Amino acid sequence: MEKLRVGLVFGGCSGEHEVSITSAKAICGALQTAPNPDKYEVVPFYIHKNGCWQSGQVANQVLETRKPQDQAEEGSRWHFPDSVATIDVWFPILHGPNGEDGTIQGLLQLMQVPYVGSGVLGSATGMDKIAMKTVFAAAELPQVKYIPVTREQVWSDPCVFTKLCDRIDEEIGYPNFVKPANLGSSVGISKVRTRSELEAALDSAATFDRRIVVEAGIVAREVECAVLGNGQPRASVVGEISFDSDFYDYETKYTEGQASLHIPAPLPENITRKIQEMAIDAFIAVDAAGLSRVDFFYVESTREVLINEINTLPGFTTTSMYPRLWEAAGVSFPDLVDRLIQLAVEYHAASD
Fold first, then answer.
1. Nearest to residue 10, comparing CAs of 125, 107, 96, 121?
2. pLDDT value at position 251?
3. Residue 230 to residues 75, 118, 224, 233, 291: CA-CA distances in angstroms?
4. DSSP of 237-303, one letter per residue?
5. pLDDT for residue 105
6. Backbone CA torsion sign across 120, 126, 128, 130
């Protein structure tokens, strides 16, 4: 059987550049673990922080050292390496804006070659927290109270801004969370307890994104479920994250020892089942494909399960929640990578 050439795309133009490199290193290792080398040939493509693509020695060196390279010449930004034309299936592992928001997916779609993960619609919906929450509401998936906000409302005249803060005071209350709508890994998120903190948090979030969401803060356990598949997706076991920090921010996520993962989560069987069903419902609602991690709040006092968000291209290191949830369900890391590539090929064939 002829090997498939897998274009492994990593790096990118977002603040999660370094996380992407770590994920790519793990995926490359999985593709070099038997029996995958009999089926696939890995071709790495590194995207610099300025958007320039490079393959060959540069891409391999970044994977080997796990360190970003100095930016390439601007003139090469729109010139893809010749090896792009030889790829049979793409594996984009670009986190954050320009990676999981439908932009790279649109480029790969134009190439008319299969790629791992959701298409343009699923990726864009999963990335924008306001669009995502609108879809969840239409699908009747319960979630915390929230208010969408625009940069123009925050940076407008004082009267408009005051009315906005008054509305948040009245409808959401404190504590609450102010989040840029289109950033991942908790970048730019603030926990707010007072009016003065709200005003500062809105101003800060507006520097990151022109769309912002304000969510009610609740006392709940944070649990996650992985989804795998296309038209008939299945859910993994449920995992729980515990941490001592005020909330699950960027530092807590990526500093060793700051957070603990409990797999499977110690939950009542009916609650676990409900989370798994809701994870699949969310996956279908946003039109995801291949893989997603769906995050929930479990309010133990009322036994409520509230959906938080869906991540259509979650972190993919060997210690990330997504592969660990599937490992607990009996799917090894190399098998998971293999399955995702096969799902990409199947999805592309079904879309023709």
1. 96
2. 54
3. 39, 9, 19, 5, 8
4. EEEEEEESSSS--HHHHHSTTSEEEESS----HHHHHHHHHHHHHHHHHTT--EEEEEEEEEETTTT
5. 97
6. positive
Residue keyed to tokens 């864009």: 124
- The pair phi, psi for residue 272, each rounded to 5°, is -60, -45
Closest residue by Cα to residue 9 from 79, 80, 67: 80
CB distance 182 to 128 below 8 Å = yes
- 10-residue mean pLDDT profile of the chain (352 residues): values are 93 91 96 97 95 93 90 70 96 92 96 97 97 98 97 94 97 97 81 97 95 96 97 97 63 57 96 98 98 97 97 92 96 98 96 76
Q: Which pLDDT score, from 0 to 100, does residue 73 have?
A: 64
Question: Residue 263 burial by CB count (10 A; 0-12/13-18/19+): exposed, middle or buried?
Answer: middle
User: What pLDDT score does 252 carry?
Assistant: 47
Domains belonging to the chain, first-starting first, are 4-99 (3.40.50.20), 126-142+219-351 (3.30.470.20), 146-216 (3.30.1490.20)
- Answer whether 147's CB lies under 8 Å from 214's CB: yes
